[in-house]
Amino acid sequence: MKHKIVSAIFILCIVALFVSLFHDKSFFYLLVALILIYLTITALGSYQIKWNYFIKSINVGKSEGISLTFDDGPDPKITKKILDVLELAGAKATFFVNGEKAEQHPDLINLIISKGHTLGNHSWSHHAGIGLFSKQKLLAEFNQCSQKIEELTGEKVTYLRPPFGVTNPRYEYVLKNTGLRSIGWSIRSYDTSEKNEQKLLHRITSQLNQGSIVLLHDTKEITLAILPALINYCNQNNITIKPLAELIEK
Question: What region, left, alpha or beta, does residue 126 occupy, with left being phi > 0 and alpha being psi -120 to 50 degrees?
Fold first, then answer.
């Protein structure tokens, strides 16, 4: 991935710096500058899933239309209402669920499937420190979630979305050992922090393009509030809302 290329270039620059300027007064400052640049790129790469810095994620579709994706559920107050809105519109979405919540609300997991939507793996716990987990512990997080979904639905999970969209080299190990495909997004709605419905709706609609994958959360009242208007906007502008598999496959 890209971080390997960046790391190789960084090492070459360090070697060149030692060879050419080790005794120069500017050596220390250039060394610090190189390290800071490398750390900055690495940090940004971790938090920008669209960069595909550590792993290859699918961030945009290959066909016309868009896909709606919902993270962090299922939520006993919001998820069913969102399913009702989607059913009324005849739209299909993908729900990246947490294993712990799936275990607590198996009825909602089966309702998602019964309505024709797709389930994705969003880790077992969505732990705040998941980015620091060892590769074995990280693998266990996603395996446990997939096993719970398959136990409840009888269907095999295909897609994974890293919690918070934060990636690191250990996710490469997870993808290789699970066979899951990482799904990012092209539009991050920020519905977890936005308080104004009109601003949230505008942020999404102003960025919509053919192939857009929209990140939403079925845990927020504001998401439920703007969803009918978002679907209506798509209908008025001839933007088809497609299941994720249809959007990302050739």
Answer: left
Q: Which residues are catalytic?
A: 71, 217
**Nearest-angstrom CA–CA distance, 197 and 223:** 8
- Mind listing the pLDDT tens digit for each residue in 81-103? 999 999 999 999 999 999 999 99
Strand runs labelled E in the chain: 57-58, 67-71, 94-97, 118-121, 159-160, 181-183, 187-188, 213-217
Report field, pTM of the whole predicted structure over 0.90 = yes
For 20-35, the pLDDT digits (tens) are 877 777 888 888 999 9
* C-alpha to C-alpha distance for 150 and 91, rounded to whole angstroms: 24
DSSP states of 9-57 as a string?
HHHHHHHHHHHHHTTSTTHHHHHHHHHHHHHHHHHHHHH-GGG-SSS-E
> Can you give the pLDDT at residue 250?
63
